[in-house]
Predict the structure.
Amino acid sequence: MKNTLITFFTLCLSVAVIARHESYYGKTKPANLKEEKVTRVRFYLRDTLSGQNPTAVRIAHANLTGGSESPVGFGSLFAIDDPLTVGPEKHSKEIGNGQGMYVSGSKEMSKFSIVMYVDLAFTTGKFNGSSISIFSRNPVAEEVGEREIAIVGGRGKFRMARGFVKIKTHKIDMKTGDAVLRYDATVYHY
């Protein structure tokens, strides 16, 4: 009888605990968001694959696509830590860095595009400690006008960001893959 009573009590306690924790969500409250802001910012990204101090390094490539013979071979995956600068000049003031990865998504060099995930972090000035997150296709070979990539998030002053970046190639060396790109970001955030 004593064992039956203990078993019954344990079973009741277990059911109460399970019932209490069966839900994975909490209460939903209305967000007290401030009015949405729009920030426009221009900077340059320097992507260097060549030389003694590259800022983009190939970390994988497909064996069937020219792999190590092409600076931007189809299926190649790169890790990057590119400086963000105020201007396109080599010694322009650095205001942050773009860290992440991109993969070459084109078989033909004339149609070269990459798919990129990059966190564009600001390390000085008004946006110090903030960043813009990019996850988008970037059609690099499109020389006509500007191309556009998506902003999918951010942190710091750009928390909950969305928007787009218009990219214009300032300079590119198709032999080495080195490039200087102008980024004009339109960031919607709270």
Strands lie at 37-47, 56-60, 77-85, 94-104, 114-122, 131-138, 147-155, 162-172, 179-189. Helices lie at 2-20. The chain has one helix and nine strands. The chain has a mean pLDDT of 84.
